[in-house]
């Protein structure tokens, strides 16, 4: 079984500071995730000047400014910052990923040599954007928050027609609410995505805590993405719905344990339980003293531990046979 690919989503939780971004990378390295992901955008390309913040963003930020543009402008990472973060990730042996939100950002990340392109939920209905990424013939991770099955099909068709191969695509089930209420998670939809499109599937999580991504792995997710931060109480749109460093570690540990526990699907005694077979199972034993020549029957035989004698599944075979020797009570036949 291939290892689950775990993406720690730093997103915009660096608050525009390269020092904070590097600290987030350190946390991701320590938690032993596979990749740390940021977001690449130009505010002027992403939102119009009069676009309002989402309600969760307004609730999570204390400033009176409701403009998405002003919020995002402070969270942009320029080309030099990208180069610095990529080289920092390389030095720490962790994969750098970033989600592009516009055409310039797609080109910027492509020029920087990114191997995997993450398409966020909000762009699943953006045909020119999907076509642009599809043409790059890179690995693609497609988030599907807010989408129905028809919209996922349309997006995949655009990617395929543009030149991306099916085996290079992983589709993530997601819910675009921060945090996602448990009753809205609908993890079974992840399986529906995998079965409908015959693609690798995973889950991008916005719930609080780590149970849901761990459950997703138990249900076959090959990729997990989860927001994290240095501190949930920091100022910014996504901190509140992000894991703190100790929780990120716990999630990775839980996922790796579940991976091990899933095993190979063959039902047989495991290595660790083999020594317990003779201790926990039973054998056919003498219920009372038996003399050589006595007929073995239900009154002089019993089934007791240990299990290193005749298997009780052969009970009917033994009943009615003649004892070939003397037995004391409790002696294995």
From TrEMBL:
Domain AFP-like per the UniProt entry, residue ranges: 283-333
CDD domains in the record: SAF_NeuB_like
A biological process from GO: carbohydrate biosynthetic process
GO molecular function: N-acylneuraminate-9-phosphate synthase activity
InterPro entries, A to Z: AFP_Neu5c_C_sf (IPR036732), Aldolase_TIM (IPR013785), NeuB/NeuA (IPR020007), PseI-like (IPR051690), PseI/NeuA/B-like_N (IPR013132), SAF (IPR013974), SAF_AFP_Neu5Ac (IPR006190), SAF_PseI/NeuA/NeuB (IPR057736)
One Pfam match: SAF
Listed PANTHER family: N-ACETYLNEURAMINATE SYNTHASE (PTHR42966), SIALIC ACID SYNTHASE (PTHR42966:SF1)
Protein name in the entry: N-acetylneuraminate synthase
């Amino acid at each position: 079984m291939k290892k689950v690919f775990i993406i720690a989503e730093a997103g915009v939780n660096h608050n525009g500071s390269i020092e904070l971004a590097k600290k987030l990378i350190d946390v991701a390295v320590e938690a032993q995730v596979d990749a740390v992901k940021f977001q690449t955008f130009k505010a002027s390309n992403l939102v119009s000047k009069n676009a309002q913040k989402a309600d969760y963003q307004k609730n999570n930020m204390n400033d009176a400014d409701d403009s998405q543009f002003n919020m995002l402008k402070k969270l942009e990472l320029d080309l030099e910052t990208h180069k610095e973060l990529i080289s920092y990730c390389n030095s720490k042996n962790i994969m750098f990923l970033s989600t592009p939100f516009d055409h310039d950002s797609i080109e910027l990340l492509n020029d920087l040599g990114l191997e995997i392109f993450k398409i966020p939920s909000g762009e699943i209905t953006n045909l020119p954007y999907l076509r642009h990424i599809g043409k790059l013939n890179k690995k693609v991770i497609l988030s599907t928050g807010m989408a129905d099955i028809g919209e996922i099909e349309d997006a995949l068709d655009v990617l395929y027609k543009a030149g991306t191969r099916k085996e290079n695509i992983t589709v993530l089930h997601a819910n675009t609410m921060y945090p996602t209420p448990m009753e809205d998670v609908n993890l079974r939809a992840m399986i529906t995505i995998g079965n409908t499109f015959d693609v690798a599937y995973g889950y991008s999580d916005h719930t609080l805590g780590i149970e849901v991504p761990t459950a997703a792995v138990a249900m076959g997710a090959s990729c997990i993405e989860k927001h994290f931060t240095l501190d949930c109480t920091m100022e910014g749109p996504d901190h509140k719905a992000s894991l703190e460093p100790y929780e990120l570690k716990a999630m990775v540990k839980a996922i790796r344990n579940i991976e091990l526990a899933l095993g190979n699907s063959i039902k047989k005694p495991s290595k660790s339980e083999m020594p317990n077979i003779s201790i926990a199972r039973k054998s056919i034993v003498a219920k009372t003293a038996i003399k050589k020549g006595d007929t073995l029957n239900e009154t002089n035989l019993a089934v007791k531990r240990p299990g290193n004698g005749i298997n009780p599944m052969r009970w009917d075979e033994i009943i009615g046979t003649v004892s070939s020797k003397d037995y004391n009570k409790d002696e294995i036949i």
